[in-house]
Each structure stands twice: as C-alpha cells, then as structure tokens.
UniProtKB/TrEMBL annotation:
<dbReference type="InterPro" id="IPR019251">
    <property type="entry name" value="DUF2231_TM"/>
</dbReference>
<protein>
    <recommendedName>
        <fullName>DUF2231 domain-containing protein</fullName>
    </recommendedName>
</protein>
<feature type="transmembrane region" description="Helical">
    <location>
        <begin position="78"/>
        <end position="99"/>
    </location>
</feature>
<feature type="transmembrane region" description="Helical">
    <location>
        <begin position="39"/>
        <end position="58"/>
    </location>
</feature>
<keyword id="KW-1133">Transmembrane helix</keyword>
<feature type="transmembrane region" description="Helical">
    <location>
        <begin position="106"/>
        <end position="125"/>
    </location>
</feature>
<feature type="transmembrane region" description="Helical">
    <location>
        <begin position="6"/>
        <end position="27"/>
    </location>
</feature>
<dbReference type="Pfam" id="PF09990">
    <property type="entry name" value="DUF2231"/>
</dbReference>
<keyword id="KW-0472">Membrane</keyword>
<keyword id="KW-0812">Transmembrane</keyword>
<feature type="domain" description="DUF2231">
    <location>
        <begin position="4"/>
        <end position="143"/>
    </location>
</feature>
Amino acid sequence: MEVLHPPIVHFTIALTITGIIFEVLWFTFKRDIFNAGALLNLGFAVIFAWLAFFTGHLDEEKAEKLIENTPAYNILEYHETLGLIVAIAITLLGILKIFNYLKPSNLLRVFILVLGLITFVLVILQGNLGGRLVYDYGVGVKPVMEGLR
C-alpha cells in the first residue's frame, strides 16, 4: 500500500482545493460552469479522501511499530486523527454541495463557502503533517524504514 497512499493523497488535495476554488468563483461570479466544476471536483474529492484515509491507515499500522518512542510517532498519530477529520469534512462538503446543486439556497451557499475555507485549512495542515513525516523523519521512505527494523 505504500505506493498507493501518496498519489491518492495528492489527488485528494488537488480535487478538494480545486473544488473549493470553483466554489469561491461560483459564489463570486454566479456562473454555472463554476458551480458544476465545484460539484465534480468535490464529488471526486470525497471518494479520494476515503481512499487516502484507508490507504494511510494501512501504512500507519506498519510504520507505527517502527517509530514508537520517537518524535515522529506523535506526529503520525495526530496525522491519522486529522486524516479522519479531513475525510469527514470533505464528505460533508460534498454532500452539502450536492443538496445545494439540486435545490439552491443562498444560506447553504454561504455555509458551504465557510466550510470549504475551513476544509482548505485542514487539508493544508494535514499535508504539512504528512510532509513532516516523510521529509523530516523519513517515514514511509524504504531505506529509512528498513534501517529501523
């Protein structure tokens, strides 16, 4: 699974941020193309968010045994918890977007925009944690992980 988590995560990040940008553009310019773009990107982001969570969980199970009692362990646990929160936030965002697409509501549009901006921040924080695990501690990097065995 180690080779699946990184690309899936990057698709999740790209789809979520692109969907939120489309949502901001739709909120600002009220063009249907932006509304459809937000819907499609956020819809696919939901699927990829859960794939990222589950592939990350599988990788986490292998990595945590090797990094117990290191600073990376706490970051890994926080990354796992935040991963669940991010997946739930993206799912909620996607579901609300579908409802608002089918039955438009200005109040729901504002709520989606606010939730989208919060989700944007969560995605960036989550990516930062994942980056720290890989670049600062070598978690998931084959030569480093083999050296810990």
